[in-house]
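input
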Amino acid sequence: MRKTLFLLLIFSLLSLSACKPKSSEPTSGEIGIAVAGTLAALPQPTIQPTYTPFPTVTPHTPALKGLFCEYEFCIGHSINTALFDAQKAENPSVYTEGMLASYRPDLFTLVIWQLNHGTDDPQFMLDLILQDGVDKRRGTLDVNLLGELTTFYSAIDTSASDKLPTGGVGAWICGDRAFGWKTYTATEEIAYQLFEEAISKFRCEK
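output
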């Protein structure tokens, strides 16, 4: 039963498409349903007897020692997770557009990209990757030069998971493509550190 549910949720996520910001792009509702379903599929901790003392767990930033390299770009990710193609099977990710996702109980990450059509402002990718009614930007938009990339980043609150109530979204241009990145985490600080690490390992063919 668990395996069947897991496969159904993965199929739901694979039905999304992060394409051009036109009528073919996924709706916020579709992304929200897929993300919520994916998070619901995460394994839950085993309930312990009431007499067993619970240790205090402090959230920490997962080390992004993993490196995903495909579609002529590389990006850092947690070594305990794997980025997988989240496009439809009949329309897989390619150089010009695509979507990747990864998850584990304390971390959910989404990466999308598409041709930038000549613009040097990637902020439209933030609007695309945010989900109406699920994600809400918080605070100011930070614009920074990280390495050779000008990045746009904002902290977010999300209702997608009560275990991962916050996170961050980022966007940048590399060559002829615009990239969007989103994560759900336990704390805002973890989200930004993950973004910095992911960008520090980012490379693309220009």
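quick obs: Strands lie at 66-70, 73-77, 84-85, 97-104, 107-115, 135-146, 149-158, 166-174, 177-185, 203-204.
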